[in-house]
Design goal:
This protein is an alpha+beta fold and 396 residues long. It has ten helices and 20 strands. Strand 4 (107-109) and strand 5 form a beta hairpin. The protein binds zinc ion. Zinc ion binds next to loops. Pathway: Amino-acid biosynthesis; L-lysine biosynthesis via DAP pathway; LL-2,6-diaminopimelate from (S)-tetrahydrodipicolinate (succinylase route): step 3/3.
Length: 396
């Protein structure tokens, strides 16, 4: 085993052993202190940012007593373009079904490290740690590179990158090291709009239903109209090979007894939004689909927005050209450029107009499930690509 490989394995295993499961979000200070010690030992300037309790409380009220920390580190020798590298250190729960090891007891087998977070996203964190070390060893490094290690990506990122982005100087470029795999770049991500449609009628006994207004039957008419008219229109839309979707009835409830006309019915809508669409447009389409029906039903219909996350994209990315070149030079291939079907923290940077991309070691298919792993060579290759990218940016 080479010294570099040994170092990758050691750092990654140390990180996996710290249970940084969101939620609730435990041991965050422990992992941030570990990373701070490493970055400081490489000579980087660091800062630990404590996320205000009020921010945590706003987004995750039950977990406000678990403190959130962000590690910022920088190696900046020139007044030139600033590039930011980010990875998140929180993980999803260990879960069941593991065969190779237990989730927080990492093992190395045939060049792969197994453990929760190996791919998502402690492999990314490890790559950035090694990148920092490599840059610090280049005596004549001329550049301005900033690193952040953030919590809570797995629960929306509001108290991670979402908070950080307003605390730092706006970088010119950013790379978020999520497990896209080194053959794929995510230039954007899909958004989400989740709604509850609430239908209210009037109850009466089923022996004399004419005294009532049936909220269920009216709700079904609304749902059917959306399925028939809106769904085909939405699901024919594509962007970079990905399709918009609308899913009805993931949650549905109403009615209390067989012999009563139900005065209440509700069903959910989950709409996945392409970067070529917008939340506003998606909402308007659904609302006008419902409005068209209002005259045909007696019940009232309200729509409640439960969750919304904007889609995001880096338009006309010059960083993309530089990254494509770096991948080609280091790995000898042209990576696939696409979008993520789920939101990633990169969106916070992209929505502030920062030229940002998601690119990192690991694979999404292995993330979140049992026997999550990463190929150690993937992490080494990622460090090589990032180093080449930085060279592309500062060598003119
Ligand atoms: Zn992730």
């Amino acid at each position: 085993m080479s010294e570099l490989i040994r170092q990758v394995v050691n750092v990654l295993m140390d990180l996996i052993k710290v249970r940084t499961v969101a939620l609730p979000g435990e041991n965050y200070l422990e992992v941030v202190t570990y990373l701070d010690n490493l970055m400081t030992s490489y000579g980087l300037g660091t800062r630990i940012i404590k996320v205000p309790k009020s921010v945590v409380k706003e987004h995750y009220p039950e977990f406000a007593d678990y403190p959130r920390y962000i590690l910022l580190a920088e190696l900046c020798n020139v007044r030139d373009k600033r590039i930011h590298f980010n990875a998140h250190y929180d993980v999803v729960p260990g879960g069941s079904g593991w065969l190779v090891t237990e989730p927080f007891k990492p093992v190395l087998i045939n060049g792969r490290v197994y453990g929760r977070g190996a791919s998502d996203d402690k492999g990314g964190v490890t790559a950035l740690v090694l990148l920092a070390e490599r840059l610090s060893e280049l005596g004549e490094f001329h550049g301005c590179v900033e690193f952040s290690f953030t919590p809570d990506e797995e629960i929306g990122g509001e108290s991670g990158v979402g908070y950080l982005i307003n605390q730092i100087r706006k970088p010119d470029y950013a790379i978020v090291a999520e497990p896209t795999g080194l053959d794929t770049v995510w230039i954007g991500s899909m958004g989400i709009l989740q709604l509850d449609v609430i239908v209210r009628g009037v109850s009466s006994h089923a022996s004399q239903p004419w005294y009532g207004t049936n909220a269920f039957e009216d709700g079904i008419k609304v749902a059917y109209a959306l399925i028939k008219e809106l769904k085909p229109k939405v699901e024919s839309r594509q962007f970079m090979g990905e399709r918009a979707t609308i899913t009805l009835g993931g949650l549905a409830r109403g009615g209390v007894s067989r012999n009563l006309v139900p005065d209440y019915f509700q069903f959910s809508i989950d709409r996945r939004i392409l970067p070529s669409e917008s939340i506003e447009h998606a909402l308007n389409e659904i609302m006008s689909g419902i409005d068209n029906l209002r005259n045909n039903i007696k019940s009232t219909v309200e729509v409640h927005i439960v969750n919304k996350i904007e889609p995001a994209i880096s338009k006309e990315s010059t960083l993309l050209t530089k990254l494509m070149n770096a991948v080609k030079n280091v790995l000898g291939m042209n990576p696939k450029v696409t979008i993520s079907r789920v939101p990633v923290d990169t969106r916070y940077l992209q929505n502030m107009g920062i030229d940002s991309l998601t690119y990192g070691p690991g694979n999404v298919s292995s993330a979140h499930g049992p026997d999550e792993y990463i190929n150690v060579s993937d992490i080494v290759n990622a460090v090589n690509v990032y180093t080449e990218l930085i060279r592309n940016i500062y060598d003119k």
